[in-house]
Design a protein that fits this description.
366 residues, alpha/beta, DNA Methylphosphotriester Repair Domain, Arc Repressor Mutant, subunit A, Double Stranded RNA Binding Domain, 4 domains, four-stranded mixed beta sheet, 14% strand, transferase, transcription
Length: 366
């Protein structure tokens, strides 16, 4: 038994079983002598003692050794995680197809789960409750409907809002401007911007009347301007303003020496879930890094790792919302909207800087 234990623990696959690593599913299987079953590596059953475990390269090998499939992880078919994901996709399609918000009971009945089980599963897979997902879906629909509808009221009801009053109560935070102005493609909104240079390349800073809406970085200044124009196609873009260039100088100083802080308000536009992620990012001290899983736990949704990664990728305010401080579970640098090399430079710079507390800029949700 001791020899069997040592053999199992020395096998690198054992660590993946202990971690219940879903990525190992389909690569190998393991059987447990005391229960007589074989499992996939991510099986949620109670962890077996390594001395009772045998590792198998194929399902056939596990069966030939006289073991039967585990009923809990279903190693011969789709995993519970795959089944759960398929049910959530089905529920999301039901929400998207409805003009109103289906009740939890209706959605659970449609996927043949209890309401409580369905609610937990949906939140674990998407990072949102069904109600919050439906709200985010309606927000996307209203953004799409406003420019093409005959009136704001028509767009509101076509997007699935039960009343115009409920929508107008959320409009400023949702759109960052009045619905009529958004319907006109942002016409009338004044966006001031300027482009400067820093050690990371060209940097563009843009602000609405509420605060900084974008900090963009690229090698080519013209690419940054085109990006801004695409984001605000009918807004009045005001560039080359000497006064506003001081904002760029503040941001450049913040990039080069994070300890000086950035005393500028932010006009943050995104979904409720994105706001929660971005708020958690802004609480990471300079010089430290965390994983996507860490952020998911901090916002109270430990299963929403992929949704957290998506929110980081959607960030348009570089450095001030420090998505560069998020790394993979193994500490490696993952993708970064403004380039992995820039991410490495920012992390190294913050780690070697003097530990001076930085001021967190005021963020206004939009």
């Amino acid at each position: 038994m001791v020899e069997m234990t040592d053999m199992t623990e020395r096998d690198p696959r054992w660590a993946r079983i202990v971690a219940r690593d879903r990525r190992a599913d389909g690569l190998f299987w393991y059987s447990v002598r005391t229960t007589g079953v074989y499992c996939r590596p991510s099986c949620p059953s109670r962890m077996a003692k390594p001395g009772n475990v045998r590792l198998h390269d194929t399902l056939g090998a596990a069966r030939a050794a006289g073991f039967r499939p585990c009923r809990r992880c279903n190693p011969d078919g789709a995993s519970p995680q795959d089944i759960g994901q398929a049910l959530v996709v089905q529920a999301c399609r039901l929400i998207a197809a409805r003009d109103d918000m289906p009740s939890i009971a209706d959605l659970a009945r449609a996927v043949e789960l209890s309401p409580s089980h369905f609610h937990r599963l949906f939140r674990a897979e998407t990072g949102l409750t069904p109600h919050a997902y439906a709200a985010a879906h309606r927000a996307g629909r209203i953004r799409a409907e406003l420019p093409r509808a005959d009136s704001v009221t028509e767009a509101i009801f076509d997007a699935g809002y039960g009343s115009s009053g409920r929508f107008y109560a959320q409009a400023a935070d949702l759109l960052g401007m009045t619905p009529a102005r958004y319907r006109a493609g942002g016409a009338g909104e004044r966006i001031r911007f300027a482009v400067g240079q820093c050690s990371l390349g060209a940097i563009l800073v843009a602000s609405s009347a509420r605060g900084v809406v974008a900090i963009l970085i690229d090698d080519d200044p013209n690419t940054l301007v085109r990006d801004l124009q695409a984001r605000f196609p009918r807004a009045e873009l005001i560039g080359g303003d000497e006064e506003y260039e001081r904002h760029v100088a503040l941001v450049v100083g913040f990039v080069e020496a994070h300890g000086i802080g950035l005393d500028l308000p932010l006009d943050i536009r995104g979904t409720a879930f994105q706001h929660r992620v971005w708020s958690a990012l802004r609480d990471i001290p300079a010089g430290q890094t965390v994983t996507y899983a860490d952020i998911a736990r901090r916002i109270g949704q430990p299963q929403a790792v992929r949704a957290v990664a998506g929110a980081c990728a959607a960030n348009r305010i570089a450095v001030a919302i420090p998505c560069h401080r998020v790394v993979r579970n193994d500490g490696a640098l993952s993708g970064y909207r403004w380039g992995v090399d820039r991410k490495r430079i920012l992390i190294d710079r913050e780690r070697t800087a003097a530990p001076v507390p930085s001021a967190r800029p005021e963020g206004r949700s939009s």
